[in-house]
Amino acid sequence: MNASRPDLATLTNGQAVKRSELPVFSPDAFGQALLDGVAARQRVSALFGAPSPIPGATRLYAVLADDEQNLLFAAATDIEGGEFQSLTPRCPQVHLFEREIAEQFGLRPVGHPWFKPVRYCRSWTGRDAWSRPSGQQILPAVGDFYRVEGEQVHEVAVGPVHAGVIEPGHFRFQCHGEKVFHLEIALGFQHRGVEAALIGGPAARTIPYAETLSGDSTVAHATTYSHVVEALAGCQTSARAQAVRGIALELERLANHIGDLGALAGDVGFLPTASFCGRIRGDFLNMTALLCGSRFGRGLIRPGGLGFDADADRIAELGRRLDAGEKDATVAIQLLWNTQSVMARFEDVGPLPRAVAAELGIVGPAARASGLERDIRRDQPSGIFCFSHIPVSTCESGDVFSRAFVRWLEIQHGIGFIRDQLRSLPSGAPRVPVKALAPDSFAVALNEGWRGEVCHVALTDAQGRFARYKVVDPSFHNWPALAYSLRNQEISDFPICNKSFNLSYCGHDL
Amino acid sequence: MIKIILARLQQKHRTMKYPDGAPPPLPDRFRGRPVIDSAKCPAGCRACADACPTGALSPQDAGLIDLGKCLFCTECSNACPRQAITYSGNYQLAARNRSDLIVARERQAVEVAGAALDAKLRRLLGRSLKLRQVSAGGCNACEADTNVLGTVGWDLGRFGIQFVASPRHADGLLVTGPVSQNMALALKKTYDAVSDPRIVIAVGACAISGGPYIGHAEVNNGAAAVVPVDIYVPGCPPNPLTILDGLLRLIGRIEDGKREIPGTK
Questions:
Q1: Which CATH number characterizes residue A87's domain?
Q2: With an 8 Å Cβ cutoff, are B137 and A189 in contact?
Q3: What are the beta bridge partners of residue A51?
Q4: A residues 156..175 contacting B (CB < 8 A)
Q5: Nearest to A328 among B11, B51, B137 (CB)
Q6: What single-letter DSSP state applies at residue B178?
Q7: A384 Cβ partners below 8 Å, 6+ apart?
Q8: What is the pLDDT of residue A6?
Q9: Where exactly are the structural domains of chain B?
Q10: Gap between the Cα atoms of B221 and B68, Å rounded
Q11: What is the DSSP letter of A426?
């Protein structure tokens, strides 16, 4: 980085600093710092607005993740007036972040190439970036869509209510015959106002909010929230709590990955693996229920440690079930790779080239399936992952097969990790008291959920309450990858492409 | 092909016997119907009501608990100074009327009598019930545990219940989520597309009361704000067994009646 340019604040995952330690750049310097960071192979983990001490202004915060140095960098800038210079033309991975800032704070990103709402809701400031009259109802997915004109080009609209038992979203395809030229995804149907409601916390509802940011990632989000609180409260959890959290995080990954492989098999009409994996997924959810009574891990993760400890009998039972589950899953999943009709449908479908994945800032198994070695468990480790390492699973081809195969690799590593932890579960208090949160502070926590990087950033006020709580679900990064992967594909391949990413609507819509 | 057959043999027959046999075992930490021993409550104590995230234990309604708001979390039992709150293993929670979910704190079981559809609807839908699922603003956990009912272990199809791709093919809706403002119109349109007679099943705290999002301007506090609801299935999310129990009692496959859970007083 240029020596004459001011430095960003350096943090590690799960660290809190005083807000006064964050440098506040001019908007130009802030933008340049972001571009320089991304040019140096850093990723934008979060970019969001918050109230500024300057009346009428909005303060933007950026968190950059440097996976090679295992560090996080943060900075802020104040935007006075109603607009800021968009970085999207030079840094595509911030495109949704900028649209979100526009929607929440009513600031126009000047020069944004596709300036549309994200969740179709009113701003928090009363200022509207699209100058919509305040009395006018905002309807989801209503507005201009990217259109391809020409003879025989047609448009296909799907959703928000889909054919399966899944969440709502709207997909608009530009097709020529069966071929998809372009897919645009409009979300926001699941918007329930969680980020706004988190302000002023922690309160009685904060933990249920964290657990329901994306229900299938309850453990990942609740752990990340707990890390933020523990950072702000200066709380050190026991080794035991960290190990059980790691076990729960991997169980969540196993259940979802196994379910996804079954669903992919179902989408290509290969019913044996579809039926087997649907059931085996339940076995893994029930392992989480063995720990805490809830198949989704509700109540297991709490700031300061665990809501439930694991006694010796429970650990032994979990080990037995893990062995049985591993055997069933292995048999069911190996069928996929040995069946040519399945492989013919997986290979070369929905490709996401490595360079595109890097440019869009894709995270999680989707990124690793495009050959990008990024995994928070290794790159920005916290908790048990500082001590017990899980190999990063990558695959090069970037297609549906690749995203399926990375899941299989991660299933195997996850089972091995849990087995290791169960063998040598450290002692310690399951839960330690959490003191009041530090006032006027800034904390970032990241965890590798089963879809990828879960990022939470908290800003506290003078009383130690959340002045802003930013949640970035991995799906927020990854939805554009699904849209891209459909280019020049058959529209009938949309279901397997979609399932190969299996993104969260509610995690995006918040 | 031989590999597929061998795998099939290895995976075994897995469909549960329930409801003809015993229900599948629930984990010992399963949180079913909460039970509060009011005799232990110190005078004027409202620790549980203060800790409750959703107001299921409202201080104004001492002695009552709203299972439609309950997240089955542990905040109330952890906050209680006298360990007066326990969770029973009672998974039978579904009720036909919203008011039936607001029950006395000490009661072990939910009143499940009258859960079935009337005779005419039972004749029409009792052996073939096609449902369209509408997910409307929740966290996807209710959808996930509804989906599970279609797997070989639960095999919802054996009861003639099936999720179909179009409301035009459906006899009713299964709604999850608090019904976000952005889904209200889509839910209404989907409901309108189902021909009469039609039923609506609200699954999960969100679809019953708004759940963790009660009172948010962005939601409608449940399905009943938009469509008439015929049966409510509490939970956050409900265990698949709770959902299945609700569906089976609705179509009259399980007879009405109270079910006391052994070992809980």
A1: 3.30.460.80
A2: yes
A3: A58
A4: 160-161, 163-168
A5: B11
A6: S
A7: A239, A242, A243, A245, A246, A421
A8: 66
A9: 119-250
A10: 11
A11: -
pLDDT: which is higher, A81 or B106: A81
Inter-chain CB pairs, A–B, below 8 Å: 189
Would you say residue A343 lies in a domain?
Answer: yes
Total domains, chain A: 2
Closest residue of chain B to A341, computed from CA coordinates = B1
What is the per-residue DSSP string for B241-262? Answer: HHHHHHHHHHTTSS-----PPT
User: Of A110, A128, A145, which marks where a domain is finished?
Assistant: A110
Contacts of A298 in chain B (CB under 8 A): 71-73, 236
Cβ–Cβ of A212/B211 closer than 8 Å?
yes
Q: Which amino acid is at A234?
A: G
**What's the whole-model pTM score?**
0.96
The verdict on a CB contact (< 8 Å) between A165 and B151 is: no
How far off is chain A from B26, nearest CA to CA, in Å?
Answer: 8
Q: Residue B173: what residue type?
A: L
Minimal Cα–Cα distance from B230 to chain A, Å? Answer: 20
Residue B51's contacts (CB-CB under 8 Å, 6 or more residues apart) are A204, B75, B76, B78, B79
**pLDDT single digits (tens) B41-82:** 888 888 999 999 999 987 666 678 899 999 999 999 999 999
Which range marks the domain in which residue A207 is found? 201-474
Assess whether pLDDT exceeds 80 at residue A5: no
Q: Do A204 and B75 touch (CB under 8 A)?
A: yes
What is the ipTM score, two decimals? 0.94
Report the distance separating Cα A334 and Cα A223, nearest Å. Answer: 32
| Strand, coil or helix: B88 | coil
Say which of B146, B166, B186 has its CB closest to residue A160.
B186
User: CA angle, A260 as apex, A254 and A263 as ends, to 5°?
Assistant: 140
* Residue A126 forms part of a structural domain: no
> CB neighbours (10 Å) of residue B100?
18
CATH topology of domain B119-250: Rossmann fold (3.40.50)
H and E: helices and strands count for chain A: 16, 16
Which residue has tokens 């990858």?
A: A481
Q: Which amino acid is at A177?
A: G
Q: How far apart are alpha carbons A49 and A65 in whole angstroms?
A: 18
Ramachandran angles phi, psi of B219, nearest 5°: -130, 170
**How far, rounded to the nearest angstrom, does the alpha carbon of residue A433 sit from its chain's CA centroid?**
29
Which residue in A121, A138, A212 has the most chain B C-beta atoms within 10 A of its own C-beta, making it the best mutation to test that interface?
A: A212
Show the DSSP H helices in B88-139 as ranges. Answer: 119-125
In a domain, A263, yes or no: yes
User: For strand A305-306 and strand A301-302, is the pairing parallel, antiparallel, or unpaired?
Assistant: antiparallel
Counting Cα atoms < 13 Å in the Cβ hemisphere of B226 gives 33
Contact A338/B at CB under 8 A: yes
Distance, in Å, from the CA atom of A430 to the CA atom of A422, rounded to the nearest integer, reads 15
Rounded Cα–Cα distance for residues B184 and A140 (Å): 11
Question: Is B29 close to A272, i.e. CB distance below 8 A?
Answer: no
pLDDT digits 0-9 by tens, A102-140: 999 999 999 999 999 999 999 999 999 999 998 889 999
Kindly report the nearest CA distance between residue B48 and chain A, in angstroms.
11
List, in order, residues 6 or more apart from A138 with CB less than 8 Å away. Answer: A117, A120, A121, A122, A132
- Which one of A215, A289, A295 has the shortest CB-CB distance to B140? A215
Query: How many other CB atoms are found less than 10 A from the CB of residue A373?
Result: 13
Q: Do A299 and B74 touch (CB under 8 A)?
A: yes
User: Which segments in chain B show pLDDT lower than 50?
Assistant: 257-265
